Amino acid sequence: MAIEAAFYRDLAYVFGAAVLGGAVAKALRQPLILGYVLGGVLIGPFTPGPTVSQIHQFEVLAEIGIILLMYSIGLEFSFADLLQVKWVAILGGPLGILFSVVLAIGVGWLLGWDSGQSAQSAPSYRLPAPWFSPDFWQIAGNCAHHMAA
User: What is the total count of domains within the chain?
Assistant: First the structure.
């Protein structure tokens, strides 16, 4: 019974932080997703104040949420839409990977690493790339706005 009470308390923290972060983002005219990330940081284990105690359960819920979000986005696309961007995907994907490998080798060379160590660090340059794209924040904000409505 105590485990359930802690879960519901943590759930209230998550929703409260999301509402607070979303309100701050909206007031600053930023995408809602940025406010949600800020809310997560506020109740995370590395900041003072209320903290989520059962992080693993919320990580599982977050993964399920991402799966459902991707599924709902997939429902919005048609094959005609995907065919319009086929050359971007066909050329952009491999070029992005090549760029990240070249960048990793360059950074590794500056740090004195051998080419194997540098190449192994390449995925770390590629994975966060969408977070720095203004298009990502716009799309994510629109998705969050549609889900909130």
Answer: 2
Of the three residues 30, 59, 76, the one that is the final residue of a domain is 76
Q: Which of 37-46, 65-74, 124-133 has the lowest mean pLDDT?
A: 124-133
Q: Residue 27: which H helix or E strand, with range?
A: helix 2-27
% residues pLDDT > 90 (the chain): 9
Query: Domain check: are 25 and 59 in the same one?
Result: yes
- Output the pTM of the full model: 0.50
AA identity, residue 110 = L
Using CB atoms within 10 Å of the CB of residue 45, give its burial: 0 to 12 exposed, 13 to 18 middle, 19+ buried.
exposed
CA distance 81 to 34: 27
Tell me how far apart the alpha carbons of residues 120 and 110 are, in angstroms, rounded to a whole number: 15
